[in-house]
């Protein structure tokens, strides 16, 4: 009984584990590579062969991002497997949404709306909230895998929507100031990536607050029990 308590205490103290954290951070960084590297290269001018390779590269990047994210959620420590599976399911869904929307949105809107101006306005509105929706999915997926309280999901969604609006404003401001498309895209993606890591930091702090002193006391008690058991075994 004491060994089970000590094991649970050590898991809570360890958190999700640095391997899971690093894999999830890597997934977020890998997902930004097309906007950081590939798209500016296309705009600045490269050989025509690159344009034929770009779709295949984006597919590989999307698959790699998804694999890293799913593995990260799968190996999160101190969390029930059910919650990790929920987080993985949400991550898969939001990854498919993020990859498919740029290809399907123009087709769907143009077929549903006859007016070209109205179709452009609808797409602009959807794109304004697109980044926030994707960020909300990523943050809530990590929250689910960490088995955090339900209200932290609401905080994650609200933060993501606000961050998405800020990113959209930065993109609009850059375009209004006459910046090049490549510069605007790189800076916008940099702001979005920073907001993503900022959201993880915010939720980490909220998770520590939500755990309360009782969990910290339980972890300390389990640690003391483990030390006592170890000392008894030492001849």
From TrEMBL:
Query: Record keywords: Transmembrane included?
Result: yes
Keyword annotations for this protein, in alphabetical order, are: Membrane, Transmembrane, Transmembrane helix
Superkingdom in the source lineage: Bacteria
Q: What is the lineage of its organism?
A: Bacteria, Bacillati, Actinomycetota, Actinomycetes, Micrococcales
Q: Which residues cross the membrane?
A: 22-41, 53-76, 85-105, 125-142, 154-174, 186-206
Q: This chain belongs to which protein, by name?
A: Uncharacterized protein
């Amino acid at each position: 009984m004491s060994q089970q308590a000590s094991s649970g205490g050590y898991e809570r103290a360890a958190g999700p584990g640095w391997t899971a954290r690093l894999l999830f951070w890597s997934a977020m960084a890998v997902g930004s590579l097309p906007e950081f590297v590939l798209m500016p290269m296309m705009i600045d001018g490269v050989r025509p062969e690159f344009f034929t390779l770009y779709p295949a590269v984006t597919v590989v990047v999307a698959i790699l991002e998804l694999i890293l994210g799913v593995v990260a959620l799968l190996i999160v420590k101190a969390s029930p497997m059910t919650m990790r599976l929920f987080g993985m399911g949400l991550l898969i869904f939001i990854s498919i949404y993020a990859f498919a929307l740029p290809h399907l949105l123009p087709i769907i809107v143009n077929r549903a709306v006859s007016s070209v101006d109205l179709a452009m306005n609808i797409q602009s509105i959807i794109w304004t909230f697109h980044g926030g929706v994707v960020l909300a999915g990523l943050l809530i997926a990590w929250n689910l895998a960490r088995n955090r309280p339900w209200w932290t999901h609401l905080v994650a969604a609200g933060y993501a929507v606000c961050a998405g609006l800020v990113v959209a404003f930065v993109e609009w401001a850059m375009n209004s100031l006459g910046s090049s498309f490549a510069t605007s895209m790189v800076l916008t993606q940099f702001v979005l990536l920073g907001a993503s890591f900022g959201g993880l930091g915010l939720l980490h702090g909220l998770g520590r607050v939500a755990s309360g002193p009782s969990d910290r006391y339980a972890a300390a008690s389990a640690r003391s029990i483990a030390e006592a058991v170890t000392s008894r075994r030492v001849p």
